[in-house]
Structure prediction request, 364 residues.
Amino acid sequence: MIDLPVDQKKWVLWMRRSIQLALLAEGRTSPNPLVGAILLDKSGRLAGEGFHSGAGNAHAEVEALNQAGDKSIEGTIVVTLEPCCHQGLTPPCTEAIIKAGLKRVVIGMVDPDPRVSGNGISRLKDAGLEVIEGVLKQECEEINRDFIFRVLNGRPWGILKWAMSLDGRIGLPNGCSKWITNEPAREKVHQIRSKCDAVIVGGGTVRADDPLLTSRGKSNFEPLRVIFSRSLDLPKSAKLWDTKIAKTIIAYGPEGDEAFFSDLPDGPEKLRLNSNDPSELLTSLSKKGCNKILWECGPLLATSAIEAECVQELVVFVAPKLLGGKSAMSPLNSFGFESISSTYKLQHSFLEQKGKDLCWSLLL
Prediction:
């Protein structure tokens, strides 16, 4: 049972619908958040609804207001996120709400963006509107976990994914790894990619696997494909150099041999970094509008990303197979721990079955 103040309980069902609307654009709104809105007329009947479909497009509140028209007068808008009060790619939603003659605004969560954070609510209250805050706050924050993290930390939410055998191997001693998991598990990976803004691999993955790194049609908005290479020792011919399907960024540190670019096909973007620190790469991707990224890299880069606090979530696929062998590949390198008490402790696990394989999601 939901334990809410009396004045909030009547809005729960409408907020759930607003959340459903917001999720229709999952993976497409970065750097903006997911937002859904429901507009009720003065009698409490549904008059309009909307969701934010992408940066530069109308915000959810405006979509709902446009649908409702004159029915907005003395009505109520139920929105998952505090309405914006600043001029961005679109005008401030607070002013549209005030102009529409609404009586009440029901809000799920406060916007963490310092340009808004509480200011939108204050503007609405100053204009005489009733504002009810915090309806399904936790659920509204959950759908925007990656947006909130980027705003507060200056880098995207990081997911690290790997597939392994039951004995913890990601490949045979000879490097063979296709396919440890089955088709349903690989389809799940494509779904995850479709919800991310970028997929990152290291040079070793490009050399060994020649990956495509797309959602395989799960989304019309393919993620950025990012190669993070220390040396730029990369093959001249790779699927990632063809940017007709999806954009590619080649990120490299000060040791990178830029002669590699001399006869590389046009298309991939060059991103020179001051270091080989994964956090610098993620700061750059944040500035490019990424809220959520997926690490699909080998043990060296995966370990470095965890140590640099660039991984907040793990998605691990486990196949009922035994690969064995001391020299068989492990998903991670040594962290240098000398006691069990000092190891990383994971939490909030979610386990689902994909064919014969298991998919385990955990927070780091």
Q: What stands out?
A: Residues 12-23 form the longest helix (12 residues). The chain has a mean pLDDT of 91. The two ends are 29 Å apart (CA to CA).
